[in-house]
Amino acid sequence: MSTAEIALPAPNAPPRAFGALATLARRRFQLTARTPRELVVPLLTPIMFALVIAPALKTALHTDASYESFVAIGTVGLLIPLNTMFSGLGVIVDRISGAQRELLTAPIPRGLLVLGNLLVALAITALQVGVLIAVAVARGIHFHATAGGILWFAGAGVLFTVGMYGMAEILANSVPRQEEYIARVPAIAILPWFLAGALFPITALPGFLTWVAKFLPLTHALALMRYGLRGDGSGLHAIWGLSDTTAMAALSLTAVGAFALLLTAASIRIFSRSAVR
User: Fold this and answer.
1) For FRET with 193, which of 85, 129, 137, 163 sits at 20 to 30 Å CA-CA?
2) pLDDT tier at 134, thresholds 50, 70, 90
3) Whole-angstrom Cα distance, residue 270 to residue 173?
4) 202-205 own/partner pairs: CB under 8 Å, 24+ apart
5) What is the DSSP letter of 105?
6) Residue-wise over 68-87: b if at least 16 C-beta within 10 A, else e?
7) Cα(63)–Cα(67) distance, rounded to whole angstroms?
8) What global pTM score does this model have?
9) What percent of the chain has pLDDT over 70?
């Protein structure tokens, strides 16, 4: 896509932030999801966990049906990091062979480029999480969600997605090549998933790792999601050890919100600095 097609405000016109943001988001969406395959492929692994591995683990571990919903929500904690980190890969491609250099000359705040990319990553991730939950329900996995619970789930999912995309932008603007970026994705997107209580409570970890897990944003996000869709506050209690579940949920939401805010601010700053190199 050429800069003429982007149709950002003319140099002599005052910048219109919302219009420019919408244009940048539309451009990123066209680059990210040009075919249905690019939306479907990232769903394959989480759906495999929800539909095949969760029932298999339930049978192998002799657990009850509630374990399936436990693992199904745990797979959301895998889908979000993988999707956002691969969205960040597009930033490197855009920098090397795309129109980023031309976009940097447009009369708009540079942070809007990051926010435009973030909106697309957030929208695609929300779609994929929705499909994952719908497939799990169709498979017969039961959730016990209330209207308030859905808000807790959505709040945790949105804030964690925002924070993880900030991480992706930071990494994308800190490494020069795609190969280096991809080599670091497992440590950032997959390793925390095994420690954050995705497949088992964090209390099952060795003592030191349980302590480490309490500081992972994903641990807080998964505990909130399970509280929202399952009415299960045990994950929150494992983190905070308080008696008031709502207060613990608010504390975890604050932690995930701080993660999102700090990573987004850092990503904009690092992108703005790297753009002038």
Assistant:
1) 137
2) confident
3) 7
4) 202/235, 202/238, 202/239, 203/238
5) T
6) bbbbbbbbbbbbbbbbbbbb
7) 6
8) 0.84
9) 76
